[in-house]
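Annotators were shown the component list below and the corresponding predicted structure, then asked to write short factual statements about the assembly.
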Amino acid sequence: MTLLNLENPCYSCRFFADSPFYVRIVRYIPIGVLFDLLCADPERPWNLTVHFRGYPADILSPCEGEDSVKWNYNNSLKEAAFIITGNSKNVMNMSQADQLAMWESVRKGDLNSYMNISTKLKLGPFEEDFLVRTSSLGSRQGSDEPESPGSVKPCRVPVRLYVRRVQEDLEYLEDAIPVSDWESVSYINRPFEIRKEEGRRITTLEHALETLLPEFFGSKPTARAAGPEPAAATPDSAPDDSDTTPGTPRDREPASASPQEMDVAKRA
Amino acid sequence: MGSSSACDGTLSLDEFNASAKALVTKWRGIDVDALPDWEWRPCRKMGVPSETEGFVALEGVYRIRAGSQIEESSDDPVPDDDVVGHDTSVQSSRDNVHLYDFHIVYSFSYKVPVLYFQGLQAGMHISEHYWIFTSSASFLIANVCNLSLGGQLLTLDEIKKDLPPHSLQLLNESKWTFITREEHPHLSRPWFTLHPCGTSDWMKLLLHKLGDKDRSLQYLPAWLSVAGQAVGLKIPLKLYCSS
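Structure shown to annotators:
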């Protein structure tokens, strides 16, 4: 995951315009997700125009520095840990050094360093029966609460979706009208609960999306969604997910909601 | 999933909706002087208001900071019981009025309500104010007009000035773990929020004496008694009296 960072001592803001349409880009969202969401026709390099004047202070409060972004990330991680294990202890008990190293790896987009630390958090994989046993966290220094032995619950996967609606009867996604307003993007932050069901051996992303976005999976799906949150997308947390191409960094992979694209993705 | 809120301090979406609507109704029924009404806002899916999801909003809460420049007129207030003195002075207190919006939104991740809030720097012109003295206290009522709403959004440092002392202390200990910035689930903008990760623990304590039926309806008022305090919202005691 990479965050776009412009250090400007005079005007610390992360507000961009992508000509000819102005889009207020929200600074906590990874750049890859933004790119997938806003560039239907992938252009490389992605041309951005940065504004240093005319900051829209009535709709966007000033950026409060890298700290606020770092804590937003940490809080997302805590939330993901809470969803997966039922508490945030593993994140809260991270050593200072680990916390720093993790943030550095996020800043620099260094996947290897990130993996070294995130595997210590033990955020998966889930057992075969899709149940999480809360006593399996392992010993952590400074944890005073006794683990309750043998408590199980169905496992939940953290999912964040940014959904952009396009006009109907679109043959090529590249022909979609570009996003002109961030408000036309819907944000859904909702965990998906994996339940063991008859006749369903594995849980796919499509099934998760159908559950989380039932209104888009009627007769005419018209939405294109960008990928799940990084904590959920690490390979060790969702081993049953069968519809992403192996070897691709998952947090940059768009999860399309249209059935044609879903079929293509599943065959990969 | 309509699981019982009961013993673990969490609540389901249905319970949240029911508790929220009960809060809105009860609030409207009591006479709350200094605060507007809570309103239920359904969230919109594909442009259509949802029947099953929404949040509760309290908007337009003023914080007028004491110590703004007041030019006294020649009428000196007389400190007798129940005397109303009338001062007229013109004052521009642009920097001292903050306007807040509070939203209570359900979190699917933590299965608890979460408080989202933001503040605006409002431009304001006080044209008249009244001093009222009683034997036990004196306080100022400002008659506000010409409130302009085109103000700037407040940063956390600016909001700090409106927070009660114990919240300030928590903030000083760790700036971004108590109050954080999150994308508002329904409004596509980053708002401030009270971090929800301890909520179910203290809700368990607050609710443990109540029976099942009362527990889910009383959830939000009980929760608000704590969350409101953290942001300086004075919740009237009448909310907790059985009607």
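Statements collected:
1. The two ends of chain B are 30 Å apart (CA to CA).
2. The CA atoms of residues 98 and 138 of chain B lie 23 Å apart.
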